């Protein structure tokens, strides 16, 4: 076990997979010598060179499309979209090509491509650099979607993503790169569709995505001090979604709170809530509650930005209401 | 822009006999397949819609004859010609048009999505220009695997107004990838004529923006297409990078079957029909090479036998079950 | 009152608004002399000419962006995206620009633009020409989203959309263009955020979007014959969403079924279900049920295509289960 | 590609005195504003991130001086210079960088989104190249309203690899819209040098793809920029259509403040710094026009007074309330 940063865990996963399989390569903006905007690919260009760590022109559609074409013909590309907000430009290749080529070809195509990106607010990056858009890609059949919250998870899930023969949208969080955590020294993989129970509890279930896992854990601390035992679950992948683990928890607690940074409206939380309601109707004591991003663009000034994404205090307050 | 003139009799005569026959056979197969598809569609036998490439046969035939078997192509909504030329069989194509389980895509893709990875056909595409970035990626893969493969990406004049065209060609130019971008300039994107799509006379002028060769050829002259494509494909194979090949041609029918194409002057269609790529080539094979009418008739009969068997195969093939729709999403 | 086709109603709305306000103009692919792929703009070029009915090159990003720029500077463009599937290419201008420019500029910008498009399966158009992607745009704060189901609604809502100072994504349905219905001869507008109760009933509420409204009404007929009284509600706009009308119905029936053609997962139905559960927990007798598109790309062959989008029989069956 | 050489002494001397002063004042204002913003950012006073345009002042100043007050611009992530040159006030800009309610965007936009529709500033943009289609649309609006307005769209070299660049410029060319696309070629997109972005020597070569003029000028020569921009802007105003103007320049700092820019050779930076656009112009105003050192000092003092007052204004302005975040979504 070592304590490493999330960004290092990303890099280690990439490095290990590139060493293991020469078909794996990276392409994206400024991922080479520059090491990526959040330094998650630092050091890889030095080891693997221009050929396998490829800086591209500023062309997200071509980055994504070239990755699809390479994946169709025997390579295993990891394409980086610098900010998830820019996925707008690459979305045709992701949602209309990568997601559908296997199906449209009657099962012929294998498309082992990973679209790595990062999302999230909290750096005063304003409306076009802070969105969390996982709902867009989760909606499209044929795409898997991962949102790792810890160094351990990001490494294990990224390695799995690279070995998967389906296209994966792999969503990191810009404020997690500097988070440290324990990561085994030996190799490990984390299968998709397995939620992590981050904290056990009996009174209330919080399902949290990405950085909200950390805030949920903080809220659970606060609530524990007031005698409320919260179970915190991180689905880790939303497609496939490990509903079973969430249901097992809700059957125990009878109360569900869902939290993500993405806009509340038409977000992933609505799907999770709907599925839980469909499956655990009898055991729910209260309607599931969503504490998610407000339905406004992300503002620049920190005081407003903090207001539009959920904070620990919002979770604590909502949890208490659910307990009433 | 450099313009290759219509090929000379000497150019044609210099080509190997079996290549000339192959070019002819391919064009005949496309012509007959498209005529039959049209007929079946109008008879209500085929679901969906149909984009006919009648009149454009020489482009697909010329380009694909210059490719190796393991080379790749990406195709378009108007793609039957491309994939037939690359070597697909009529029976499984026809079955796909019928939406049958024996089709190349098990009835999931239909006319606009025919693919056969084993033949290097990376797929027709319903999104205009979306095949270009994919072609760029396949060329990247070929370069990285040092496989010596080349990619030919087919697309229309309209597609060159898409951002994806620009990004894909630029990326290939920067990385010197082995890909030839083949524009089938049929002078219209649906109803929109060339001069309302761009303020230049030739699509190949766009090559200047990427520092790559741009060539315009007579797309109804299969020999000219073959030679220009061959030069650019071999150039790409040598590692000298991508190129843009514009083939000037015309679609005989409307954008899709059912479009009366009233936006085109009748004399324009008449002029292009007088330059029927198949008839021109047929005449030249008789006059400039030593083909006999019998030989050509045999090729036509073989193609028409293949076609008849294909329709029969398609009709007799089983339809998918509804639940088959749930398969093939995930590997 | 006249009986007119849905496509005529679209055209009439455009014509009336163009006559009323010379700032209104149209741009898109083949909308001029060709009259649009579904002939919804036929005749407008003849009346208004090249200047106000503008055929564009094949450039969805520029179509959308030019519309945004024109809207910012005093015009009221109606931009057509031929198939909603192609919105992938225009999405940056719609979701990152049109939706956010007002907010990012601190309320300065007015962006009176309408993005007209059409969605839906049922014509064997396969995976890239048959999607229903309203969830994508509904998720983005700053965009209004309309999905009219009848000639009456499409006319009244389109006129409202054109007069709205916010960007509107206006989603028609390719199989509705040939549907006929009553439309008043005198001018009328339909405000956004007002659902239509299409049929009254006491046992079960069906909330249906776009073409599913018609299938829901058919299902209601079938169910009525078996003694089940269904209330059918068409929200008409999903942003803003008229939750009040839906809640009023659910408080009466206690049972909710939601139906749309879009993929079930992470679709609009999840949001509607979640909001109803949050607000009407006490009165719901059963968990809301979604009968929506299956989570697979749209296949070509009709027998498979019909299977992946909801049919009348699916609604009838689900309704009966809910009544048990 | 045609290249305008560095402007001659005669060219400079031929310009009206008040124009020369305006160009100088604008460049000084940009220089001082950017230096101060850098200082405040490093001191931790400004949230978010900062893209400095130090070293690129001549482009914004030269282009905007050739615009009418009611003309439009679209700007970029590196946009402080553009909007200052178009006439925005330092105080409300600085307040925006501080995220205060008195900022141009009430603290909702920040450095990357400064807009003032009343001054024709249609917004800086965080999405590279997204301003270009918007500029095309504003030009369409100007054409349809017959307002005589012209649009200048600023963007970087990197932006020309975006599909949006291609689609926007092509559309404007087809419709002959009154817009000048101004590429600030600072030779890098973040860490990626020009030769890894495109296989051509000059961005202006891309104009050939659209059938419009493409001009390259020395972007550190404000007179050359002013004259080239002026020609193309007036051409556009006369209804002769769009053009692409490439201004060759260099950013002195990293991509954003905090980027040490180790990917650039130090001698390259040194060379460009020796060609400081402000110093060059200052020297020429003294030598080639009849400006005195005192006059220039006065301009500098006025700018620095404006700046000081601006910082003061920004600091003293009220911060938004959290709930203000909920306003301004809907009209
Ligand atoms: C991105 C996108 N926009 C629009 C369409 C609708 N569409 C299909 S084919 C076509 C015209 C294509 O013109 P061109 O590229 O010249 O090919 P051609 O049909 O002439 O062979 C259009 C507009 C589409 N399929 N994809
Ligand atoms: C679509 C998009 N992709 C990537 C980015 C991240 N990014 C911001 S600025 C920039 C480089 C822009 O280069 P250039 O256009 O040359 O402008 P410069 O920064 O040199 O002024 C990049 C990659 C972005 N903002 N938008
Ligand atoms: Mg065409
Ligand atoms: Mg640059």
Beta fraction of the residues of chain A? 15-25%
Major beta-sheet overview of chain A: 7 strands, mixed
Helix content of chain B: 40-55%
CATH architecture of chain B: 3-Layer(aba) Sandwich
Overall outline of chain B: globular
Bound molecules: thiamine diphosphate, magnesium ion
Pattern of helices and strands of chain B: EHHHEHHHEHEEEEHEHHH
Structure description:
The complex is a heterotetramer, with 2 copies of chain A (324 residues) and 2 copies of chain B (331 residues). Chain A has 324 residues and is an alpha/beta fold. Chain A has helices at residues 6-20, 44-52, 60-72, 87-98, 101-104, 134-138, 151-163, 212-225, 243-253, 268-280, 302-308, 312-323; strands at 2-5, 24-28, 53-55, 76-81, 114-119, 144-146, 168-173, 180-183, 196-199, 204-208, 230-234, 237-239, 256-259, 289-290. Chain A has 2 domains: 2-183, Rossmann fold (3-Layer(aba) Sandwich); 196-323, Rossmann fold. Chain A has 12 helices and 14 strands. Chain A has a 7-stranded mixed β-sheet with strand order 3-2-4-5-7-6-12, with helices on both faces. In chain A, strands 9-11-10-13-14 form a 5-stranded mixed β-sheet, sandwiched between helices. The termini of chain A are far apart. The model of chain A has no long low-confidence stretch (mean pLDDT 98). Chain B starts with a strand and ends in a 15-residue tail after the last helix. Chain B has a 6-stranded parallel β-sheet with strand order 1-7-8-4-3-2, sandwiched between helices. Chain B has a two-stranded antiparallel ribbon with strand order 5-6. The longest helix of chain B is centred in the N-terminal third of the chain and has 26 residues, at 17-42. In chain B, helix 2 packs antiparallel against helix 4 and helix 2 (17-42) packs across helix 11. Chain B is globular, with a radius of gyration of 19 Å. Chain B has one domain (2-317): Thiamin diphosphate (ThDP)-binding fold, Pyr/PP domains (Rossmann fold). At the A-C interface, helix 4, helix 6, helix 10 and strand 14 of A face helix 4, helix 6, helix 10 and strand 14 of C. The complex binds thiamine diphosphate (TPP) (2 copies) and magnesium ion (MG) (2 copies). One thiamine diphosphate sits between chains B (77-78, 126-128, 155-159, 184, 186, 188-190, 255) and C (29, 58, 60, 82, 86, 89).
């Amino acid at each position: 076990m070592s304590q490493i940063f999330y960004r290092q865990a990303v890099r280690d996963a990439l490095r290990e997979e590139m060493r293991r399989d020469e078909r794996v390569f990276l392409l994206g903006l400024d991922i080479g010598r520059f090491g990526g905007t959040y330094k998650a690919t630092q050091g890889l260009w030095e080891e693997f060179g221009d050929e396998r760590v490829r800086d591209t022109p500023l062309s997200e559609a071509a980055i994504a499309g070239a990755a699809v074409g390479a994946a169709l013909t025997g390579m295993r590309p990891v394409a980086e979209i610098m900010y998830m907000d820019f996925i707008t430009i690459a979305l045709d290749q992701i949602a209309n090509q990568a997601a559908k080529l296997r199906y449209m070809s009657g099962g012929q195509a294998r498309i082992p491509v990973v679209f790595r990106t990062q999302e999230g607010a909290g750096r005063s990056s304003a409306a076009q650099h802070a969105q969390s858009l996982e709902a867009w890609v989760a909606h499209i059949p044929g795409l898997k979607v991962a949102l790792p919250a810890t160094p351990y998870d990001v490494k294990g899930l990224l390695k799995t993503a690279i070995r998967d023969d389906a296209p994966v949208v792999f969503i990191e969080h810009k404020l997690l790169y500097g988070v440290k955590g324990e990561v085994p020294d030996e190799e490990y993989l984390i299968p998709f569709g397995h939620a992590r129970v981050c904290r056990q509890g009996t009174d209330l279930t919080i399902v949290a995505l990405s950085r909200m896992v950390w805030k949920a854990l903080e809220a659970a601390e606060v609530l524990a001090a007031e005698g409320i035992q919260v179970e915190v679950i991180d689905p880790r992948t939303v497609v496939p979604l490990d509903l079973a683990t969430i249901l097992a928890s809700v059957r125990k607690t009878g109360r569900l709170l869902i939290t993500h940074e993405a806009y509340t409206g038409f977000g992933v939380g609505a799907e999770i809530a709907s599925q839980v309601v469909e499956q655990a109707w009898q055991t729910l004591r209260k309607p599931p509650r969503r504490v998610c991003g407000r339905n406004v663009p992300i503002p620049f000034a920190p005081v407003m930005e903090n207001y539009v994404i959920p904070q620990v205090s919002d979770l604590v307050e909502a949890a208490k209401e659910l307990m009433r | 822009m450099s313009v290759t003139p219509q090929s000379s009799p000497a150019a044609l005569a210099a080509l190997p006999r079996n290549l000339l026959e192959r070019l002819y056979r391919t064009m005949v197969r496309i012509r007959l397949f498209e005529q039959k598809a049209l007929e079946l569609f109008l008879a209500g036998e085929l679901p969906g819609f149909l984009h006919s490439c009648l009149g454009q046969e020489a482009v697909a035939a010329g380009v694909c004859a210059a490719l190796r078997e393991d080379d790749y192509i990406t195709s378009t909504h108007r793609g039957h010609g491309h994939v037939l030329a690359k070597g697909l069989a009529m029976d499984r194509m026809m079955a796909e048009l019928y939406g049958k389980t024996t089709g190349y895509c098990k009835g999931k893709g239909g006319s606009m999505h025919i693919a056969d990875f084993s033949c290097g056909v990376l797929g027709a595409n319903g999104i205009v220009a979306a095949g270009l970035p994919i072609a760029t990626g396949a060329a990247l893969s070929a370069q990285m695997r040092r496989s010596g493969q080349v990619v030919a990406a087919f697309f229309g004049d309209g597609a060159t107004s898409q951002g994806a065209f620009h990004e894909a060609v630029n990326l290939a130019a920067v990385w010197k990838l082995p890909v030839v971008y083949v524009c089938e300039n049929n002078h219209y994107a649906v109803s929109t004529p060339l001069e309302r799509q761009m303020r230049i006379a030739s699509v190949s002028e766009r090559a200047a923006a990427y520092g790559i060769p741009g060539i315009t050829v007579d797309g109804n002259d299969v020999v000219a297409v073959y030679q220009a494509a061959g030069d650019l494909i071999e150039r790409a194979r040598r590692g000298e990078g991508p190129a843009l090949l514009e083939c000037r041609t015309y679609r005989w029918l409307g954008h899709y079957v059912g479009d009366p194409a009233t936006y085109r002057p009748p004399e324009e269609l008449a002029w292009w029909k007088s330059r029927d790529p198949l008839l021109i080539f047929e005449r030249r094979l008789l006059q400039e090479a030593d083909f006999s009418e019998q030989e050509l008739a045999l090729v036509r009969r073989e193609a028409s036998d293949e076609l008849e068997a294909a329709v029969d195969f398609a009709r007799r093939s089983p339809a998918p079950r509804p639940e088959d729709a749930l398969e093939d999403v995930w590997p």
